Amino acid sequence: ALGLIPARAGSERLKGKNTRLFAGRPLIDWTLDAALASGLLETVAVTTDDPAVAALAAARGVTVIDRPAELAGADASIYDAVAHALRVLGHDWDYLVLLQPTSPLRTAADIDGALTLCHARAAPAVVGVSPLMKPPAFHRRLLSDGAIGPAEGLNDLVVVNGAIYVGRPDRLLIDRRFDVSGALAWSMPLERSWDIDIAPEFAAAETALKA
Fold first, then answer.
1. Separation between Cα atoms, residue 167 and residue 119, nearest integer Å
2. For 26-68, what is each residue's pLDDT tens digit?
3. How far apart are CA 107 and CA 53, in angstroms?
4. Phi, psi dihedrals of residue 60, rounded to the nearest 5°
5. Which backbone phi and psi does 144 adopt, to 5 degrees?
6. Three-class DSSP category at 95
7. Can you give the three-state secondary structure of the chain, one letter per residue?
8. Other C-beta atoms within 10 Å of 192: how many?
9. Which of 15, 100, 163, 185 could lock onto 106 through a cystine, CB 3.0 to 4.6 A?
10. Which long-range contacts (CB under 8 A, 24 or more apart) does 149-153 make?
11. Separation between Cα atoms, residue 206 and residue 203, nearest integer Å
12. Alpha carbon distance, N-terminus to C-terminus of the chain
């Protein structure tokens, strides 16, 4: 299994977020911790165009893949970056685990649990999910006239939290998505499911860690 951490330099909503200090350490360090503590990842690699990220990863003994500029822009597809990383590494992997640095509170147990689930159930993929922030009883629909209507069918809804994606590279390169038919869910509690894209989320996740 390959653990791949995508960490491009550009971030439109939170500049330099991958190296921004989160509880006193660069944000990406938390994902490196979880990946390196995994008992099932054979290799951990970072794909990046950011020299600062590359230096941090190299200092931890992690493989660094220099991502070309055309695969690092805001409109670049993560799946093209994955394909590039697989070509550079040149190995026939059974599983690829995508670990975004913006989910710093996911654990090594989450990684190993999701991988084990994927293998045990012969699933095409496993995706990290978490509960809705508010229980179903709090949810409503906004009607076309601006009125509030009842929400329906929310009891079994979950949120794809962005913390962990497990896939089989051969399928992934064809489907270009993880949530394919037959994909399974790896359920995570809200406190480990932060997905940081903007400053308020950064601050809230940091506060949750210290609580």
1. 10
2. 999 999 999 999 999 999 999 999 999 999 999 999 999 999 9
3. 20
4. -95, 5
5. -65, -25
6. coil
7. CEEEEECCCCCCCCCCCCCCEECCEEHHHHHHHHHHHCCCCCEEEEEECCHHHHHHHHHCCCEEEECCHHHCCCCCCHHHHHHHHHHHHCCCCCCEEECCCCCCCCCHHHHHHHHHHHHHCCCCEEEEEECCCCCHHHCEEECCCCCEEECCCCCCCCEEEEEEEEECHHHHHHHCCCCCCCCEEEECCHHHCCCCCCHHHHHHHHHHHHC
8. 19
9. 163
10. none
11. 5
12. 33
- Per the listing, tokens 């009891």 go with 155
CB-based contact 129:202 (threshold 8 Å): no
Residue 150 Cα to chain centre, angstroms:
32
What tokens were used for 181? 């038919």
Residue with tokens 């913006």: 102
Encoded tokens for 113: 């649990």
Question: In this structure, are residues 191 and 131 in contact, taking their beta carbons and an 8 Å threshold?
Answer: no
Token pair recorded at residue 101: 């640095």
Cβ-proximal residues to 17 (8 Å cutoff; 6+ apart), any chain: 11, 27, 101, 102, 196, 197, 202
Contact 48, 65 (CB under 8 A): yes
Residue with tokens 């009125």: 147
Digit-coded pLDDT (tens) for 129-154:
999 888 888 888 888 888 898 887 77
